[in-house]
Protein: Ig-like domain-containing protein
Organism: Otus sunia
Amino acid sequence: MGNYGDVWATCPPLPPSATTRKPPNVTVTLIPSNGGAEGAGLLLCDVTAFAPRDIVVQWEGPGHAPARARLGPVTGDGPFAVLSLLRLVEGEGAAAYACVVQHPALPRPLRVA
């Protein structure tokens, strides 16, 4: 069997963002509606400073949260960032919802309310 050492030596190194494992910072912010109706508005889940790029961001709570949630594109060359918005309906409290983030640098899903 041949020596494969030369083959591995000629492979280009991976970019730092491909090998770095950095857990995300996650914050959830309530953005009230202009009318100020109780429970109406948006919840913003801001997920920043993570690597690698692979990530899952979801909302947990009553009702049909996934149907009312929007996830933006993952941005950056590493570390990365992404935003998710959940539209609240009138009479719904923000405290009933949590942003759940799954990432390779986390030992378990991170739940932030």
Summary: The chain is about 10% helix and 40% strand. Confidence is low (pLDDT under 50) at residues 1-11. Residues 5-9 form the longest helix (5 residues). The first strand starts at residue 25 and ends at 32.
